[in-house]
Amino acid sequence: MAERLSALIDAENDAFTKAVKGQLLESLPQVDTESLEWLVMEHYQFSFANKALLQKAVDCTRKLADTGVSIELQRNVDEEDGHAPMYKKGMLEAGTDMDSRVEFPPTTRFLAGVDALCAPNPSRALGSLYATETAAIFEHEVFHEICKEIADRRGFTYEGSLIKRFHDIHLEDGVEQGHKDGLAAFVDLGPDAADGDGEPIDMDEVRKGALEAIAIMRTWWDALLKKSLGESVLQSV
Ligand SMILES: [Fe+2]
Ligand SMILES: [Fe+2]
After folding, report:
1. Ligand 2 mean position to 153 CA, how many Å?
2. In the chain, what are the domains?
3. CA-to-CA distance for 54 and 77, rounded, in angstroms?
4. 2 Cα–ligand 1 center, Å
5. What are the residues whose beta carbon lies below 5 Å from ligand 2 (ion)?
């Protein structure tokens, strides 16, 4: 039996997310608080943009014969409601003001790159968002540790805090796993799933969209690691 497309995409994602996670967690104790705080502020930009990106894909995937894709993405948008403000407030309580951030061009380019994948091709949007939702699990795992480190250094109690709750919702409560699994069903279903008059899911475009999204995430993380840690393990992975 041929390997499921979602498994192939997961393997590509794992290769880079494991490397980034390894480098970040290993260097965490030596990185200055300012750099850790900077990383959180850059990640917040993705959190802040996420709802609009997803909404664009909701509209675009309405063209698909399988209405389930758009419905699943809308469920995702609704679930994200209030998350970015929670992230911002949670970090403000821990002493980090997201509004003090200065634009970092690689993040601007990253968000523009994801935005370009969310439309007009619905199959490409499906693949791209499957890849970014999969990576979201790793992001919360890493930023949970980073936020805890920042809190500990500042004598702010992480346990029971809003910022811990923010990461817990996404990990322990299974929000991100739900987003990944909800899209995986359609990534693996392909054109046979059509239940309406629209476009069938094009597996080749799904794969291309996912790989492009992963390439964009790699480029972004490479820039984030170089700026915050002085070097990036992604050069050799
Ligand atoms: Fe969220
Ligand atoms: Fe998500």
Report:
1. 29
2. 5-19+36-229 (1.20.910.10)
3. 6
4. 33
5. 133, 136, 176, 179
User: What is the Å distance from ligand 2's center to 155 Cα?
Assistant: 30
Q: How far is the centre of ligand 1, averaged over its atoms, from the C-alpha of 33 (Å)? A: 24
Report the percentage of the chain scoring pLDDT > 70.
98
132, containing H or E segment: helix 122-154
Residues 87-92: contacts with CB within 8 Å, 24+ apart? 87/44, 87/47, 87/163, 87/166, 88/44, 88/48, 89/162, 90/147, 90/161, 90/162, 90/163, 90/164, 90/165, 90/166, 91/40, 91/44, 91/147, 91/163
Per-residue pLDDT of 36-47, as tens digits, reads 999 999 999 999
- d(CA 38, ligand 2 centre) in Å: 22
Mean pLDDT of the chain, nearest integer: 95
Compute the distance from residue 163 Cα to the ligand 1 centre, in Å: 12
Question: Over 70: is that where the pLDDT of 140 sits?
Answer: yes
Distance 197 CA to ligand 1 centre (A): 32
